[in-house]
Amino acid sequence: MSTIVSPSVAADDYLRVRQFSDLLCAPIGPEDATAQSMPEASPLKWHLAHTTWFFETFLLRRDDHYRSPFPEYEYLFNSYYNSVGKQFPRPQRGLVTRPTLDETYAYREYVDGRVADAIAAGLLERDPAAAAVLVLGLNHEQQHQELMLTDLKHLLSHNPLEPAYRADQFQPATPADRDQWLTFPAALYETGHIGDEFAYDNESPRHRVWLEEFQLAKHPVTCGEFLEFIAADGYSRPEFWLSEGWATVQRECWTAPLYWTQHGDDWSEFTLAGRQPVDPHRPVCHVSYFEADAFARWSGARLPTESQWEVAAAAQIPTGNFVDALLAADEPVHPAGGVRDEGPARRLFGDVWEWTASSYAAYPGYQPAPGALGEYNGKFMNGQYVLRGGAAITPVGHVRPTYRNFFPPHARWMFGGLRLAR
Amino acid sequence: MSTIVSPSVAADDYLRVRQFSDLLCAPIGPEDATAQSMPEASPLKWHLAHTTWFFETFLLRRDDHYRSPFPEYEYLFNSYYNSVGKQFPRPQRGLVTRPTLDETYAYREYVDGRVADAIAAGLLERDPAAAAVLVLGLNHEQQHQELMLTDLKHLLSHNPLEPAYRADQFQPATPADRDQWLTFPAALYETGHIGDEFAYDNESPRHRVWLEEFQLAKHPVTCGEFLEFIAADGYSRPEFWLSEGWATVQRECWTAPLYWTQHGDDWSEFTLAGRQPVDPHRPVCHVSYFEADAFARWSGARLPTESQWEVAAAAQIPTGNFVDALLAADEPVHPAGGVRDEGPARRLFGDVWEWTASSYAAYPGYQPAPGALGEYNGKFMNGQYVLRGGAAITPVGHVRPTYRNFFPPHARWMFGGLRLAR
Amino acid sequence: MSTIVSPSVAADDYLRVRQFSDLLCAPIGPEDATAQSMPEASPLKWHLAHTTWFFETFLLRRDDHYRSPFPEYEYLFNSYYNSVGKQFPRPQRGLVTRPTLDETYAYREYVDGRVADAIAAGLLERDPAAAAVLVLGLNHEQQHQELMLTDLKHLLSHNPLEPAYRADQFQPATPADRDQWLTFPAALYETGHIGDEFAYDNESPRHRVWLEEFQLAKHPVTCGEFLEFIAADGYSRPEFWLSEGWATVQRECWTAPLYWTQHGDDWSEFTLAGRQPVDPHRPVCHVSYFEADAFARWSGARLPTESQWEVAAAAQIPTGNFVDALLAADEPVHPAGGVRDEGPARRLFGDVWEWTASSYAAYPGYQPAPGALGEYNGKFMNGQYVLRGGAAITPVGHVRPTYRNFFPPHARWMFGGLRLAR
Amino acid sequence: MSTIVSPSVAADDYLRVRQFSDLLCAPIGPEDATAQSMPEASPLKWHLAHTTWFFETFLLRRDDHYRSPFPEYEYLFNSYYNSVGKQFPRPQRGLVTRPTLDETYAYREYVDGRVADAIAAGLLERDPAAAAVLVLGLNHEQQHQELMLTDLKHLLSHNPLEPAYRADQFQPATPADRDQWLTFPAALYETGHIGDEFAYDNESPRHRVWLEEFQLAKHPVTCGEFLEFIAADGYSRPEFWLSEGWATVQRECWTAPLYWTQHGDDWSEFTLAGRQPVDPHRPVCHVSYFEADAFARWSGARLPTESQWEVAAAAQIPTGNFVDALLAADEPVHPAGGVRDEGPARRLFGDVWEWTASSYAAYPGYQPAPGALGEYNGKFMNGQYVLRGGAAITPVGHVRPTYRNFFPPHARWMFGGLRLAR
Fold first, then answer.
1. Which residue of A71, A248, C406, D130 has the lowest C-beta tally within 10 Å?
2. Interface ipTM
């Protein structure tokens, strides 16, 4: 996080990122913004408040004279920072009906004003750590922008009325060529963050890793390919599954990706644009690590490690189907596949987060950031797998080749897909 | 339910009761109206919709030509009527963010219009069963009016901001004389509903019951008396408790009635008017059957049976602290005790529902109503105890001397108190 | 418990009852005696130790000079007596592998010797309360004899090998005449214990109760009759069930009484003599209150109240199919029905405990016994229904017309059946 | 598993390993052998039967004419092999009281006889795959020998009588020098199994791995060092813990390693020789990954990766405190530390399994064994961490430098300790 920030750029970035949250939430009323569909998801209203709390807590409170007009929010909107204080129980976030949505927007406005004042008063020049916090806070907000849509989709899916976030039209996706592979030679590679741009602490330090020769598929697995796995009874054959995955399949009665429903021979899926037919040419999404791994085993392939994925993505500019582009084009906020913004021969970014075979762990020599912000990444380093590349709900500019997302292996509500390796 | 209804009275009653729901909900915005604090409680918005569903399902659908503009609500707002169809899972009512609060009010308006049309078109004269359903539906709505405030209080109590439903002022209550008893001789009494006025099926048939001589306290147990029980370590002495009650005390770490908090020597309680000091002269409220029973045993007394309570209340007009009167007087919606509207020497109605020692069971010769409406009462006749008399959140006119409320013995979120017998 | 006991009779009774426990357990080896199939059931070894603990704690420890060679058993084998001290957690009784079965028998032998010594030394003459404890302890042991077989059956049923307790031969039962009813007039009856013989505190005080005219079936419901309920889809029609019963049916996937299995058109049941065909003429057994109540509603009848049952049984000597008689006749320890030991026109005792419609509650004026023994009955007076009459695993002499057994409404592992009333 | 086995050696090995199970179980009676203390642990009797089932299923059933006299054991003692058939539910193994312990020994004797016959009849020469199964089965049995003691300890610890497996005497351990480190240079290393000796499929293929320079402590962390962590409030400071670890500490109320108890200033621990004082010079044991990781962070160090551990152990003969040696020396079956059988400067084997920082995952190019035996390792590759080196309950000869044990991060009942790296 040794990022150099020019104050005027910082102020612009701040406005741009914060306003994008407002833009994302514009279609959402107080009822949709209040409810919490499960402990792992949070209400939209909470996301709007918590991202604001982050700036208030870590930026404004650097000034010892700062007095918040909302002192009880310090407790209420702390997500998991033990060093800041106790936290309101996560599974009960849907019960915090106050502040209302309007009051939450007012809280945002208040903090935005104070942050603008502080920047104008030279905080960032005076206090380089504050500049780093600002950048971290913006990246943090972008993560939550992604979660807003992810969590909202999960909430809306529980309503038999199947309401849409936006009523966009689906167009058939263009087919991708199957079974095309990129080959990488055995070598001692370097992975991890390098340079002055912002990156999370978990992307460092840059380090060497030996990889044997490997191949990576040119495109993510599609819905059509996944339907073949279903047709081959993939969900009822334990030999493809990890033991815990198989237990989950049976306990949760999984027979398809999350949000998919079968009527006769037709499959449809609930999307942010309401219920839609499953499009065989779009990347499959909302599969757990267990399903991704089982699919790969059934295919005679495997998932790539995160090192392999990163080597393939090295030095690429992340372009692809991100949320900004989809909204701008009035397209559904949904994995599209196809050729938009394609990088040179590889569609590694956007559309779906790609499960890797790598458990989320510290890089050799990893050091968490000091203080409360050190609770950002390191303490989640168990029981999770790394996903790479960003998805259709990710803001452009948020991901990098070295970016590490992570979720537990049973999680399906985020936009997780997969790419094969061998 | 062989009630004779004049159509014009019916139309007036309908309007009056329905509008009272609107009045109760007027201070509540969409956020507060959406959330569900536990499976046993329901969102305000759901109460508003479900009571409307009742009239649509059981009154409007009597007309085979009726076509609802909201066909999916039939499933969505069915509470527990198996003979009507499947039900949306109760614990997920807080996830049904649509219809919004405004859409819910529109649904009410639509149904109210159609009911008014039907009455004007002579439905009640033509179809006496429809008249009975109308009356049942109004009593049903009154029950839900009570639950709206009960459930809302529970929801608001989870918010560390402790928001109030209404910001009423608390005045100190007047002390009641302690240890005054009414005595009733041994005799063969009659209890149960008699006459043409509306009553639920579970209040019938009227039947004979032999009671030995007994005494009933003149007033409900007060907060001050209950504080003595707490001071006597009542919550940590198993000898006062039923076995399952004692297990509950330990598992749930109960040390006082629900909503009570101790700071130093002071006790306060969360109320619909926000946090307030515990007033020793008000009736104690939000105690479970287990606590009521333990308090009675510690006192050397016991709880009355429902027959004893009913004999004491027989032929009395229910007056007391009900929600209409409290709102009209700008007093807090909270048990007040004292002398308002006191019946001749007995304060049996209003303030708090009084736990009785009687399990909720069928009277000899009980017959549930035929059809779906027969699911109203009989199928809940196990695992619950009877409470009598109505409370500060009950609409006046809803209770009778024969009225039987019922809750499981661990329930505390409704306004349950107690009166001693011996 | 104001029973007058002659010491020599007491010593004889003591030996007889204690030895019957040994007789019941004789076929059981250490493995079967150790395991616990669910929290509600206990290992045989625990029953053998706990009944001994009862005599040591409440009889031998009356002597202040008594020093137990097994001081740690005071904690280990206390079932639920809070006033004696803390209790080892009930769900973990199967983990107490020591004392071994042999050591447990040695504990029994030691305590039996000391009790015999105390009786010989005149304890019972000197200390009338001790005499009462002795009688209570023997009744307590008889209850546990019944539980030994009940719990053992439940344990053995979990083993796919389906081992038998005893390999007795089943003979076809004799058919009973259906639809025969006894009629009782409306009157003010007296129920509850009277006289000097032993009875539990919950059978007192004797009290008056008004009953309207009622009819009681002459025999318990048979397996054949219950098969008709199954064939009529009784387990899939919610209209017959209490709400909580219906939820239980669906959650637990009940389709028949516990231990019953269907293969094609044939039904068999697991018994203490291994798997056997369901005999249509034997009384149905191992049904919950929910099933008994649903069957009664389907039949157009209802369950009797415990008062009604007791009025019918009043002044009868309890004879019928009890465990002693079945063992003596080398017949299976299983409800037989038929004509053995039939009382005058009523088969009210033995075979199956009969569910009544009455919640288990205190009689008017009930006073628990003082001290620790007061924890015997009263503290269980919620959430349970009364059963009457004894069953095929009950020792003869243990039940009376006034005897009140009780279980929660979902319980099926004890020998519960039903008799209709109307 | 391409091991070449001489039949006479195989027969000898078979006898030796099988008889060692009998030796381990000799002090255990039927009660101790029957109970199951938690779903993750199994009864001793089950271990004895399941290891026998393994030989019957995978060796004897290779002969199509083989007919088992115990056909129902195929289902009853299948642990998790889906391709063999359904499995008896693991959490209920303690309810399988039959076969009895004696019958289980008879089953062992029967299968041992048939295996001996088959070897004598030339099975291993005729069928090289059978020879591989035999060797696998013996390694499988050694794993279960370790689990027998591990699970038995857990069971006995639940009994307030705290019975001992063997009444051995504890001697004070010799202090180890603290803060001694071995240094390894950065290099491209090879790890994984090589050669003809038996190894599990998860130890292959041998592969290259780049390691930066690292240091490994010369000895495992001792109880004394762990007491310093406790004294430093290690269990109440979230900054040392993974997020899920911290949640576990609070939910489970962990304040010390499993089996440790504090009385005043003294710490004792339950061992296979009963309760003993905590010896500061013995290696700490029964800590979870969460505790190991928190201790390491508190120390300013970290856990080694499994590659680092294996590089340090490469080419060493595993000697140390294993169960055979401890039993032979009449020493407690407990981590001893000290200098027995010390390898050249490193105490890497025996005493305690050492947690590594590595999630249990497939080596690059990993292929599970074909058929049912392929279910042995690969399907458990998620949610677990690798432990290395063997422990005081491991049979000598069972572990290797490449041996990979694995457990979930919260597990504490196996003999898990740790060694620091940096």
1. A71
2. 0.94
Mean pLDDT across chain D: 93
User: What is the nearest CA distance from A170 to chain B, expressed in angstroms?
Assistant: 23
- Report the C-alpha dihedral over residues C17, C19, C24, C29, rounded to 10 degrees: 140
Order the strands of the A353-359 sheet from edge to edge: A405-407, A385-388, A353-359, A416-417
What's the pTM? 0.94
What's residue B345's pLDDT?
Answer: 46
Of B208, B382, B409, the CB nearest to C242: B382
Q: Which of C188, C245, C379 sits opposite B243 (nearest CB)?
A: C379
- Interchain pair D159, C101: CB under 8 A: no
Contacts of C409 in chain B (CB under 8 A): 382-383
Domain ranges of chain D: 7-157, 181-417
Q: How far does CA D335 lie from the centroid of its chain?
A: 13
Determine the Cα–Cα distance for residues D323 and A94; give it in Å rounded to an integer: 54
| Residues of chain A neighbouring B99 (CB-CB closer than 8 A) | 161
Query: Between chain C and chain D, how many beta carbons pairs sit less than 8 Å apart?
Result: 84
Q: Which chains touch C (3 or more CB pairs under 8 A)?
A: B, D
Q: Which of A276-280, A359-363, D129-133, D376-380 has the lowest mean pLDDT?
A: D376-380
Say yes or no for a CB contact (<8 Å) between C361 and B365: no
A181-417: CATH topology is paralog of FGE (formylglycine-generating enzyme) (3.90.1580)
Cis-peptide into B99, omega within 30 deg = yes
| Crossing angle between the packed helical segments B101-120 and B7-25, to the nearest 10 degrees | 170
Tokens read off for C195: 């006289």
Which residue of D lies nearest to C155 if distances are taken between CA atoms?
D95
Residues 6+ apart with CB under 8 A from B131: B3, B5, B10, B124
Residue contacts between A and D (CB atoms, under 8 Å): 74
C-chain residues within 8 Å CB-CB of B302? Answer: 362
Tell me the HSE value of A28 on the side-chain side, using a 13 A CA sphere.
29
Query: Across the interface, which of B72, B97, B161 has its CB nearest the CB of A35?
Result: B97
The CATH superfamily label for domain B7-157 reads dinb family like domain (1.20.120.450)
Mutation target vs A (from B95, B155, B158, B413; most A CBs, 10 A cutoff): B95
Would you state the pLDDT for residue D346? 60
Is D357–A362 a contact, with Cβ atoms under 8 angstroms apart?
yes
Query: D254-281 pLDDT, tens per residue?
Result: 999 999 999 999 999 999 999 999 999 9
Q: In order along chain C (422 residues), what is the average pLDDT of each group of 10 residues? A: 63 95 97 97 98 97 95 93 89 96 98 96 92 94 98 97 94 83 96 94 96 95 97 97 97 98 96 97 97 97 97 89 94 84 66 97 90 83 97 96 98 98 94
Per-residue pLDDT at D395 exceeds 60: yes
